[in-house]
Each structure stands twice: as C-alpha cells, then as structure tokens.
Amino acid sequence: MVMITKTYISSIPEQEQRSPKGRYHLFRKNISDALGGEKDTGPSGGGHPFEVELVRMPPAATNFPFHAHFAQWEMYVFVSGQAEVRGNDETTQVAAGDAVIFKPGDAHSIRNTGASDLTYYVIADNSPADIVSYPDTGKWGIKPQRKLFVMRETAYYEDED
Predict the structure, then answer these.
(1) DSSP class of residue 102?
(2) What predicted TM-score, i.e. pTM, was given to this entire model?
(3) I need a labelling partner for 138 at 20 to 30 A (CA). Which of 7, 99, 109, 131 fits?
(4) Measuring CA to CA, how many Å separate 107 from each of 54, 90, 137?
(5) How far apart are CA 55 and CA 60, in angstroms?
(6) Does 117 map to a domain?
(7) Residue 4 domain-assigned (yes or no)
(8) Which of these, 114, 28, 24, 19, lies nearest to 66 by C-alpha position?
(9) What distance in Å separates the CA atoms of residue 149 and residue 138, rounded to the nearest whole number?
(10) Which letter, b or e, does each residue of 98-118 get, where b requires 16 or more Cβ atoms within 10 Å of its Cβ?
(11) Does residue 61 lie within any of the structural domains?
(12) SS3 helix, strand, coil % of the chain, rounded to 5?
C-alpha cells in the first residue's frame, strides 16, 4: 500500500533569517522538509528532487544578496504583495499572480517594494552541489558547505548590508 505524505502548511513553523543590519530579512516555511525531504541532499541523499518553500518578507526587505547559482534552477510564484525582482540585465516589478524563473547562471534577488508583507513560493531543483557567485561583492560559495570566499573565508552577509 502506498501512503500519501501530507502536511498542513499552516502548521509548519516559520524560520527567520535576517542579516546583522536587517537589509536581508525573511521568514521561511520549508514545505519539502515537512514532507520528509532533506535540504541540500537531492534524491541520492534521501531528499526530494526539488525543494519548495513558502516565504514571507517584511516591507523594504530583500531576500538575499544578488547571486547566481551555477547548478540550480529557481522559480518564484508570488502570492501577495509587490516586489522588485533584479536579474542579470534588468529589474522588473511583480505582484500577486506573477511568476519568474531563473536558470543556472542567472543572478537574481527580490526586494519587497510594498507597504505589506510579500509572500511567494520558491521552487528549486535540489542539486547535491552548487557554486554560487555574488556579482556585487565578488564573493563565491560552495554548496552544501555554505562557506563563502573572497580569497579568504567570510560570513554570508559580510559587506552586503
């Protein structure tokens, strides 16, 4: 017998992530983990082939420093609020009902431009390893080790706020 794995999104605890000066600030509900996945492992490590999160961002917050994954695709589906999505060559406005996708190599970040919380789903393939570059600061990182380098090891939000 095949059992259906089910979760209630409202019961998944939010995990807050905030940079030291608060420029980058969001709350995440990792739906994939709640359904039995393991973050950053992919199917070969017991995880799902993709990750799904529900994200809530306060007004004026940015999700992450401008960055590009070299192995991972990311799709964003906007549920409520208004935002500015920065890409390699342009910045565009988005609102509830919009969706955007970034292929490997496309740098991106999202900033809440509205007066209320921005909510969106992020759906990303779960590559077991990835290299991430940060064009604005020249940093790069290796996933899953989660260390960033500028010819020296540095903290994730260093020089970003």
Answers:
(1) E
(2) 0.87
(3) 99
(4) 21, 10, 13
(5) 15
(6) yes
(7) no
(8) 24
(9) 9
(10) bebebeeeebbbbbbbbeebb
(11) yes
(12) 5, 45, 50
- Could you give the CA distance from residue 22 to residue 17 in angstroms, rounded to a whole number? 9
Q: What residue has token string 């604005």? A: 136
In a domain, 155, yes or no: no
Residue 20 token pair: 């030291």
Structural domains counted in the chain = 1
CATH number of the CATH domain containing 69: 2.60.120.10
Peptide bond into 13 cis (omega under 30): no
| The token pair that represents 43 in the structure block | 């199917």
DSSP characters for 24-71?
A: BEEEEEEHHHHTT--TTTTGGGTS-SEEEEEEEE-TT-BSSSSBEESS
In the chain, the amino acid numbered 51 is E
Residue range of the domain that includes 76? 12-128
Which tokens hold the place of 113? 């431009």
* DSSP single-letter state for residue 146: T
Local confidence pLDDT in tens for the 161 residues of the chain: 888 989 999 999 999 999 999 999 999 999 999 998 876 666 767 778 889 999 999 999 999 999 999 999 999 999 999 999 999 999 999 999 999 999 999 999 999 999 999 999 999 998 878 899 999 999 988 876 666 666 667 788 888 88
Q: Can you read off the two tokens belonging to residue 30?
A: 């990792």
